[in-house]
Write a structure and sequence with these properties.
single chain, about 350 residues, mainly alpha, ADP-ribosylglycohydrolase fold, 17 helices, about 60% helix
Length: about 350
């Protein structure tokens, strides 16, 4: 077994820790602090490689999903209460001090007050908080494609209700699933385009309820298509950048700085597809960037880990990463979904 779930969860946390010190920095500042990007060390302080809210919220979602699926199949009604509870728990945690996103904070405060979750969702926000945490949806065993798509969109909508946030979360989870189950990097872009086109006019009211009615689009299908069209546009940017990739250049020039969901997905995917056989280089390159470095490296590390499995990561990095035990416990439980697993 390659242990794809373990590899993906560890890769997300390692990338997050790698990018934590470089977020909000210019390329010149990063060069002065870290030296050449290919030699960038995993930052360790007092024996730990500290992560950000990206990994904290990934764990919240993962543990909420584990609870929701413990008794059988996944539906919106089964998923929303435990994931809401875990998000609120994160919001109240004293460890929630890693520069969390404003949308996540506002929405989680509203979720804490109770009532319909749609009242908490920010329909104007497509920040990368929507999909920097979505990897568990692509890793949890037993979901079919419809459940995976619906769950990915729902976890985004609890905080980020913009249609592009929903579509980018769906596409990110699908990428994780494809890589975990053996899709070759060279086949990834066509498969992602196929998924986007197949879902462009498919509104998931069974998972999202009346969320689209609260927007200003003519109808729910128009709402949905708006998000997928922006994701298809970023796939175009990634494909164009891969025609003549420059590993020495700031990867944010390929598909954006990553502060918004579709750009975080696109630039992280570019980093992975540019260096698909070298997972440490993938997270280093994504972290050594002028944009939302921790989220970019977290997503890029997730993709590399899903593709290569747990062996992708140096043992000393795994030993140092914060929340290691929780990540390994979830990965061990979910690795059994692989072909040949038990």
């Amino acid at each position: 077994m390659k242990r794809a779930a373990t590899g993906a969860l560890l890769g997300g946390a390692i990338g997050d820790a790698m990018g934590f010190p470089t977020e909000f920095s210019t390329m010149a500042m990063i060069a002065a602090k870290c030296g050449p990007w290919r030699e960038m060390p995993l930052p360790v302080s007092s024996g730990l490689a500290y992560v950000t809210d990206d990994t904290q919220m990934t764990l919240a979602l993962a543990e909420g999903l584990a609870e929701a699926t413990a008794g059988g199949g996944l539906t919106a009604a089964r998923m929303e209460p435990p994931v809401r509870a875990r998000f609120v728990e994160w919001y109240l945690s004293p460890d929630n001090n890693r520069a969390p996103g404003a949308t996540c904070l506002r929405a989680c405060a509203a979720l804490r007050r109770g009532g319909a979750w749609q009242d908490a969702s920010d329909l104007g926000s497509k920040g990368c908080g929507a999909n920097m945490r979505v990897a568990p949806v692509g890793l949890v065993p037993g979901l079919d494609g419809q459940q995976r798509s619906g769950a990915a969109q729902l976890q985004s909508a609890l905080t980020h209700g913009h249609p592009t946030a929903l579509a980018a979360s769906d596409l990110t989870a699908h990428t994780v699933r494809l890589l975990a189950t053996g899709t070759a990097p060279g086949r990834l872009l066509p498969a992602l385009r196929e998924h986007a086109h197949a879902n462009r006019l498919r509104h998931r009211a069974d998972w999202l309820g009346d969320l689209a009615d609260r927007a200003h689009d003519p109808d729910a299908v128009s709402f949905t298509a708006r998000g997928w069209d922006e994701c298809l546009a970023v796939l175009d940017r990634v494909e164009h950048a891969l025609r003549s990739p420059d590993p020495e250049a700031d990867p944010c020039t390929a598909a954006g700085a990553g502060w918004i969901a579709e750009e975080a997905f696109g630039t992280a995917l570019f980093c992975f597809l540019m260096l698909p056989d070298d997972p440490p280089a993938v997270v280093r390159r994504a972290a050594y960037s002028s944009g939302d470095s921790d989220s970019l490296a977290a997503l890029a590390g997730t993709f590399a880990g899903a593709h290569h499995g747990a062996a992708a990561w140096p043992a000393e990095w795994v030993d140092a990463v914060e929340y290691r035990d929780r990540l390994l416990e979830l990965g061990s439980a979910w690795d059994v979904d692989e072909p040949g697993g038990s």
